[in-house]
Structures are given as structure tokens and as C-alpha cells.
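Researcher: I'm preparing a figure for a lab meeting and need a structural model of a single chain. I don't have an experimental structure, so a prediction will have to do for now. The sequence is pasted below. Please return the structure as C-alpha cells so I can convert it later.
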Amino acid sequence: MSERALSAPPLAAPGACGQPADAAIQIQEGIVVDANPAWVQRFGAGSELIGQPVMDLFEEACRPALKGALSACLQGRWSGHTLKAGVLRPDRTVVSTEVALGLAEYAPYGLCIQLTAPAGRHEPPDERGRIAELEHAVRIDQTTGLLHRPALLQTLRDRLPVALQGGVRCLALVKLEGFTAIEREVGATASEGVLAHFAALLKETLHPSEIAGRFGGVRFLVLLQRGNERDLTAWAQQLVAQAAKRSLRVRDKTVATPCTIGLAIVSPASTDIDSAIAAAVEAYARARQRGGSQALAAWDGGGSGGAHEEIWIKRLKSALLENRFRLVKQPVASLGGGDPRMFDVLLRMVDGQGKEVLPGEFLPAAERNGLLKNIDRWVVAASLSFAAQHRPACLFVRLSKETVQDASFLAWLDGHVRSTRADPQRVCFQVTEAVCVAQPQTRVLAEKLRQWGFRFALESFGSAAGSPLLLESMPLDFVKIDGSLVQSLARDKELQQRVRALTEVAAGHGIRTIAERVEDANTMAVLWQLGIEYIQGYFVNAPEEVVLKADEGTARLRALSETAQVRSLGEPRSR
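Model: Understood. Here is the structure written out cell by cell.
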């Protein structure tokens, strides 16, 4: 194997300036053509490394993401993101690392992809370093690698006051079931390995910003932040399924690791961690009563009533009358490069004290009390004003089930299009797949909107067995692949096959695909490989406030409080 240094960009030799060098390999047409000494030293590779397919150097679970990133990099469309990866040593043990990719001219091979695993930068050990190591040992459970209970509780107390930028927070209580029997079968020492195995599985399912710790025994607490309640339920169901599926061999015995999960929403306004834990514990207890090895959410079958519901009704009506809603836009990015100038419209409410209220708090109450139609009209009118003023290429605007059922919506919309002079082609109305399935009139609405020049999309798409059939029957411009599928995509082959099949069917009908709630580079790389055209989510950009102050023309939507008085315009004109 060649010992020459990699050319561009230059890499430090091992030990330069007292620091370890970045490990790097050069790849051409999927084959390793050279490696620097730091790669050999760090990952234990030998002379057989040169000429190997690069995929053979990595554990199977991360190969789809790596393949997608390599493809994007060759086309000059990989923007310096790092991937989480597991490098296989010759003895088949896995070294977890992060890798970066970039194009480099490398003699004598010409243009290659340089894959780099940055070295950790460590200061020489001193007293502060030893103190830090001790503090780490106190905070981290040695078996699981997760936070100890005291550190976990303190971290949760610190996190709760930090305002959410979007989505919902949830506390999950996760318990490994049947551990007493496992310990009896394989012994106390080996059972610790089983616990570590389960903790590793749990960590695989989490986003980098999420918190997990050992709450006691074989119980774990996790603070999640996801797009909505459906994403949370999907996370829990997928963890239960993976835990049941991933058995391991211990002392010639096959050991299963089933788990049960209880979920509870943490209100953005709450800093009471004890109440959130109690709710998660209660949800877990209900799941156990139903037989265990399942996930149960505290909000399942729930609802509010009484004085609490009356308060929400007053707050919502007051916000409508006083125009205390705001729109934010979240960019939709193209995996093919360039800025498509497409944005997803999200909603915020501002309470009487000027604090922002997220949709997860107020929309369930609005739905229970028949106010979604009014809120939809505020959103649509504000979106039309924004589209007319700022002329985005496409603005995605949600419609609720109530609006789909509303026979007066089209006449109302016609009046607002006339008054704002918005170009319909710049607005794409979207409904969820569930609404489309439950409301047959969705097709009629979509056809009329598209006749006028609007575009139409299905969001939260792909979760139902009959999803491909909708592509045959619905007039669509876009489908948004359900975020609950996307969030576990990077390491789940079955999900990858499912999303690929949906993408291919959509492409066959000329329907463009968008992946919802993309949160990391690994997922983006897999989506690239699967043929998805666009992505949205916090990995692309957090939502940004864009509109529209209470005194900005038509967006004020004084007419919202006069919905019942909207003048009938008859059938809207053809556009």
C-alpha cells in the first residue's frame, strides 16, 4: 500500500503539532485507491485495503446513507455535511465515527472522492482533564452509556425552560421487559451486556438533541422533540418493533429484548418535570395492563372538557377576532441543487401576553370545537397576501377536514384571490392522506383548485397500505412522504424499500416527491439515493416568521369574524 500523503486538501501526518491526524481514504468509482497512515492506524487496515469496494469498509446499516452521499458528491451537490458511520475493522468489530466527503484531484488517478474521518482533538491530560473525566463518570452510566438518574433529572430541568422552535416535546418511559428472567437465564454479568445492547438500540433511534438516561433498573426516560404526535407514536412503535426483532446470542442462548413504552406530551409552558414523568409512568402502566410489549400515548383516546375546554374556546375566538395569529415559512430544499423558492406555511398563535403558542397546543382544541374552518381561512388569506407580495415559486398551505367539507370555501376563496391578485400557480393547497381517504369530496376540491391554476398535494403520505392507489385516482402535483417514515429511514431497509416504491409510483404519474421532517445528513443521503426530489425539516432550516403584522392590508383578515356573512359568489369562474 502506498505511504504517500493525500494531496488535496493536505492532511497532517500522525502526531503533527502533538495532535492525531485525520484518517482519510481516496475513492474512485466506488473503489479505494489509497489511504493515509492515520486510516491504517486508526481502523487497523492492512495492504488488502487498496482495491476494495468502499462499501465493504463500513457496517451494513450505514451503507445506504454513504452510497447516497457518494452519489451526491460526484455530482457536486454534497455541501460539507458529515455522516455518522461505523467502520469495520479486520476483526469485524465496528468503530463509530463521523465522516466527511469532498471531491479532490489526486495524482495519478485524477478526480477522486476523499472520505475523511476527523481525529478527535485532545489536550494533554492535566488536572482539569482529570476532573472532567471524573465528572463524566459521575454523569454517565457505565453499562448503558446514558445519563445516570441524577444527571438525567437535572438535564431535563435545564432543558424544559428552553423554548421550542417548532414541533412538540414528549417524555417517554421505556422499560426492557422480562429482564429478571434474562438475568436468571444468562447470569448477572452477561445480562449487563443485554442491557447495553438494548441501550445502544435506543440511542440509534434518537436525534442528536434528544436526551436519554437510565431512570432506574431497566427503565429509561427519553425527552423527544418531533414534528407532531404522529411522529412520536411512530418512533415508539418502531422502537417496540425493533426491540422485539433484534434478539442476540448470549452464552449459546438466544435472548429477546421486548420493551413497553409510555408517552406523555410536555407542554411548552410547563417546567414541571414531575408531572410529565407521572403522565409517562401512567401511560406505561396502561400499556402494561394491555399486555405489554407495546407503546401507549397519554393522549390516546384523550380529550379535554369542562372549564379547561371553555378557556381554550375563549382564547381561540379572541385570537381570531384580534388577529393574533402568525404565519412562519419553512424552506423546502431541492436535492437536485439550486434554490426552488418553495416554502411550507406553518401557523403560530400569540396569546394575550404576547407569547407564542405552538399548533400542538391549540389546534386539538380548535378541532374539537369546530374552529378549524375559521383558522384555515385566516391562514389562506394571509398566504395569498404573502404570495402576491413576495412571489415565491410555491407556497404550501394546509387545509383541514372541516374546510374540505365546507361547501362555501371555494366561493370565499374566489373573492380573496380577486382582492389580493395572487397568482394561483404560486400556491399549493395540501391535505393529509388521512383526510383524503376519509373525505371523498377531496378529489372534487382538488380538481376545481387545479382548474383555477392552484396546485395540490398530499402530506403525511405513505403510512397507509393503500397509498399507491391514491396516486392513481387523485389529481396531484406533489406528495410529501410521511415524517414518521422518514425519521427512521437511515437504518431501516424495509422503510427504504417502501419509500423507494412510493417514489417510483409517484414519478410514473408525474408527481413530485418531498420528504417531511428531515433531521440529519444520513437521512438526507438515503433520500438522495431513493430518488426523492425535495426535503423539508430542521436539517434544512428552522421555520422563519414572514408575515404579517396586524395592520398589513388584507392579511389582517377582519372578515374572519364575519365568516357567516361571506357573500355568495356562486360557482367560481374558470381560470
